[in-house]
Amino acid sequence: MTRSLPAGEPDDGAAAAHQHPGETGPPYRYERDAVAADLHEQWSDLEPGTETETRVTIAGRLMLRRVQGKLAFGTLDDGTGRIQLFAPAAVTPDHADFCDLNLGDWIGVSGIVMTTRRGELSVRVDEWSVLARARRPFPDKWHGITDPDTRFRQRYVDLWVTPAARRTFALRSQMMTETRRFLEDRAYIEVETPMFHPIAGGALAKPFTTHHNALDADLCLRIAPELYLKRLIVGGLDRVFEIGRVFRNEGLSTRHNPEFTMLELYAAYADYGDMMELTSSLVEHLAVTLTGSAVLKAGDEMIDVTRPWRQATMAELASEAVGSTISVHTPRGELAALAEAHDVAVPDGSRTSSAKLLTELYEKLAEPGLAGPIFVTEHPAETSPLARRHRRDPLLAERFEAVVAGRELANAFSELIDPDDQRQRFEAQASARAEGDDEAMVVDEDYLRALEYGLPPTGGLGIGMDRLTMLLAGVEAIREVVLFPTLRPEQT
Predict the structure, then answer these.
(1) Is 20 within the bounds of a domain?
(2) What residues contact residue 263 under an 8 Å CB cut-off, 6+ apart?
(3) Less crowded by CB within 10 Å, the N or C end of the chain?
């Protein structure tokens, strides 16, 4: 196996530093012909105390160093792995300067491949160059960065001293690639829709707002790409998906970052049942492909994402949590009493409907305890303004949330295609907004116009890719899977 090097790097083992007349300081470029991972693979069977005739040029950060008289050892990390540097004073030029290198310095080294008497694969330091100095000390190798806030704020250090972090982001990249391949194999095409929206829509959330000077128009960062993607279904693109950033002006938590990555997809002639099959198939495929198993560790739980996944209605789960049978048809007063008895706060007080009370009881009492994977179905239509009404009960929507380890992973609908029903629901949302609900939607006239041209039966799905990475990587906080999470301003 051979890893490709960046463009322009030769493989002839030539000395690496290029200095031209008049240049001082570190070289402007450096040619290498080997990386640590390939060396370990190629020379895994080399006997202890063996010197080869193979000369290589490598480069990376010096992460460890120890000096024993006229013999020095270092550990070079080049991003693919780590390899030992063997620097005897009799061979290594400027040996004293090599021994004084700072941990974290970028260096280039040329020398033969060998093993020490203890069998450690090494590169003998026959030539070396400083490529960049680390002017700030790196954390101790054995302890790394112990303060989580520093880890996330200084990710450029964390990635070097926390190998698990680097593995997590490599997995995230592979997950994105594999997701695209999975969908393209099923005839979905990837599209891009606007980040700036004149109207916030596609989800119940508070947007970030800005102003476009040339147009003298207020805009918002998108909270979801949904309404634009469904416009494309109207336009005849039968299967579309987008993976991109969305922005919601909400609080920070282990599950929430104000900007996060969503996969949204829509398929003509499909319904939410088709989206269930697609969701479970994708998650199972990613688990097996990227981790080698469909059984994933989430906190103290072992979660088996093998299909089929359990299905239960929101009413069934809420009923289990409160100990009595309730539904969207249960009188509001009875649900309010149950909320009070179980210390579930009701945001809107006396104005809260049965639909919203049922949702609150489910979200506060049932959802956190769901190990999953489970499809929670039949949400109230009132709280699902973009979903089609259930074919057997108009107070319910054909909607599911996929929940794993107590966290919502995906949300999907049989999409609402009736422009008259959609207008009524937009207007109900606008009324709620006028009464103080700043997460409610407004009437989007252009989207209604698109629906009037005809939206065929359509299934839609949104998956939080950060939360999916958390599941696959076995981590508990969203900041572990976002390279540069939103943090409070640093105190100076």
Answers:
(1) no
(2) 179, 241, 242, 243, 461, 462, 463, 465
(3) C
Q: Would you call 371 helix, strand, or coil by DSSP?
A: coil
Position 202 scores a pLDDT of 82
Q: Which of the pair, 351 or 448, is modelled with greater confidence?
A: 448
Residues 385 and 272 in one domain: yes
Structural domain that includes position 46: 36-132
Q: Which residue type, as a one-letter code, is found at position 315?
A: A
Q: Judge whether 322 and 428 are in contact, CB under 8 Å.
A: no
Q: Is 272 exposed, middle or buried (0-12, 13-18, 19+ CB in 10 A)?
A: buried
Residue 25's pLDDT is 80
pTM: 0.89
Whether residues 243 and 304 share a domain: the answer is yes
**Rounded Cα gap, residues 7 and 427, in angstroms:** 56
State the pLDDT at residue 345: 86
Residue (of 423, 482, 412) closest to 226 by Cα position: 412
Nearest to 86 by CA among 44, 131, 132, 117: 117
Separation of alpha carbons 438 and 348, rounded Å: 13
Alpha helix positions (H), 79-212:
95-99, 148-153, 155-161, 163-184
- Return the bridge partners of 297, or none: 302
Domain boundary among the residues 132, 148, 177 is at: 132
CA 336 to chain centre: 37
Chain centroid offset of residue 94 CA: 45
The alpha carbon of 356 is separated from its chain's Cα centroid by a whole number of angstroms, namely 30
Residues 6+ apart with CB under 8 A from 190: 180, 183, 184, 240, 241, 242, 243
**What is the token pair recorded at 404?**
């794993």
Pick from 41, 106, 40, 109: which is nearest to 72 by CA? 109
Q: Which residues of 6-24 are buried (b: 16+ CB within 10 A; e: fewer)?
A: eeeeeeeeeebbeeeeeee
Write the Ramachandran bin of 188: left for phi over 0, alpha for psi from -120 to 50, otherwise beta: beta
